[in-house]
């Protein structure tokens, strides 16, 4: 028979392993990381669910302001630009609603906020690309299904394999 402290330690280790295996890293697509009331999509404009917190409405409005902006590598990071890149788009939305102080490159979002999917806002990041979902609606500069690139809303899920999954604290 094992001493109580060893049994307790093994139990905690098993619990931690189970939590790790069932984290958002096990999700296959961005759509699987949200189960709340869906955002509305009207052409290229989005609307937050009525009962969403004010900051979620502000984030949606910020995303609407950059719809159809062209893609520009490095765009949105302080230099002169005519478009936005992926991290510039996510940074713009988060800065517009007070959730980020300065623009950040895509790999910087791997440690932003808290781990796992958020209740309202989730950020998916890896070296070289970042995108976000707000109330289940994806804001991404690529893979929108069309030939245009740049910040666009889409309902189409995206694979999250290899992405860190984070969210702003409380959201």
Question: Which structural class fits the helix and strand makeup?
Answer: alpha+beta
Give the strand tally: 8
CATH class: Alpha Beta
- The rounded distance between the terminal residues' Cα atoms is 45 Å
Strand neighbour order, sheet with most strands: 3-8-4-5-6-7
CATH topology: endopeptidase fold (from Nostoc punctiforme)
The gross shape turns out to be: globular
The count of domains is: 1
What gyration radius follows from the Cα positions, in whole Å?
18 Å
Strand content: 15-25%
Low-confidence runs (pLDDT<50, min 5 residues)?
Answer: 4-24
Assigned CATH architecture: Alpha-Beta Complex
Q: Give the proportion of residues in helices.
A: 10-25%
The residue-averaged pLDDT reads: 84
Major beta sheet summary: 6 strands, antiparallel
What string, H for helix and E for strand, traces the elements in order?
HEEHHEEEEEE
Q: Can you count the helices? A: 3
Q: CATH homologous superfamily, by name? A: endopeptidase domain like (from Nostoc punctiforme)
